[in-house]
């Protein structure tokens, strides 16, 4: 099984999350062919018996707010993606990937059987829509996320895509289903006050549409 040469898959674990999903998650990722260059496993508790291509890094204070900063600090390749412990991949999830542009985003199927396929049309219409248009699995150049980092809020991916659009990021679209996304009531995106989260989305939509947001892993956003 030959690994891809320049892709890190980041896996983040804290609390009891890994104990709950270990068996299904490990069985799934070892069957993936080809494999990424490595799985970067960021954790607040060292684990035993991980697959050989897992590079484990102990980060005692890792949590939902700082996990992506640590991911970028420890990634050694030029491209990266992430995989939640409660998500899975088809065995050919990394097969025939074309590394072009700044981001490659593919379709995913959620655990309710619904397929989400991002498109250029959805990307271009993002500011005009009131629902998240870019549900899907994606990988990005490491340099892009350092230039336009994720912000420490719930639904940080939605906010970040507004900023990608504001900066005319080169996005490539892949219609293949490359991830199975788990939907359940314990996932982090469902935690917290949805009204407050939506207010933040609306604020960033307006600011990004005006083109005057300064990139940064902070909230509230700073203006240029």
In a nutshell, what does this entry contain?
The protein has 224 residues and is an alpha/beta fold. The chain is built from 6 helices and 10 strands; from the N terminus they run βαββαβββαβααβαββ.
Describe the structure.
It is built from six helices and ten strands, in the order βαββαβββαβααβαββ. The model has no long low-confidence stretch (mean pLDDT 93). It is α/β, with parallel strands linked by helices.
Through-space gap between termini: 48 Å
Structural class: alpha/beta
Instruction: Quote the average pLDDT.
Output: 93
Q: Number of helical runs?
A: 6
Task: Write down how many β-strands occur, each being a DSSP E stretch of 2 or more residues.
Answer: 10
Helix content class: 25-40%
Order of helices and strands: EHEEHEEEHEHHEHEE
The main sheet comes to: 8 strands, mixed
Rg, nearest Å: 17 Å
Q: Give the amount of beta strand, in percent.
A: 15-25%
Low-pLDDT stretches: none
- Cα shape: globular
């Amino acid at each position: 099984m030959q690994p891809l040469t320049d892709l890190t898959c980041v896996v983040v674990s804290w609390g009891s999350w890994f104990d709950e999903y270990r068996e299904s998650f490990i069985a799934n990722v070892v069957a993936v062919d080809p494999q990424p260059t490595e799985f970067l496993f960021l954790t607040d508790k060292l684990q035993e018996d991980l697959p050989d291509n897992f590079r484990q890094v102990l980060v005692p204070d890792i949590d939902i707010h700082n996990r992506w900063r640590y991911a970028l600090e420890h990634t050694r390749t030029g491209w990266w993606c992430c995989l939640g412990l409660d998500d899975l991949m088809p065995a050919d999830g990394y097969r025939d990937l074309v590394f072009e542009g700044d981001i490659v985003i593919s379709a995913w199927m959620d655990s309710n059987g619904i397929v989400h396929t991002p498109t250029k049309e959805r990307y271009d219409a993002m500011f005009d829509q009131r629902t998240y248009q870019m549900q899907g699995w994606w990988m990005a150049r490491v340099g892009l996320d350092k230039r336009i980092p994720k912000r420490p809020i719930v639904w940080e991916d939605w906010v970040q895509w507004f900023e990608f659009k504001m900066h005319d990021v080169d996005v490539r679209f892949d219609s293949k289903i490359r991830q199975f996304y788990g939907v359940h009531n314990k996932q982090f995106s469902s935690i917290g006050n949805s009204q407050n989260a939506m207010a933040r989305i609306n604020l960033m939509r307006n600011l990004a549409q005006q083109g005057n947001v300064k990139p940064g892993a902070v909230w509230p956003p700073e203006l240029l």
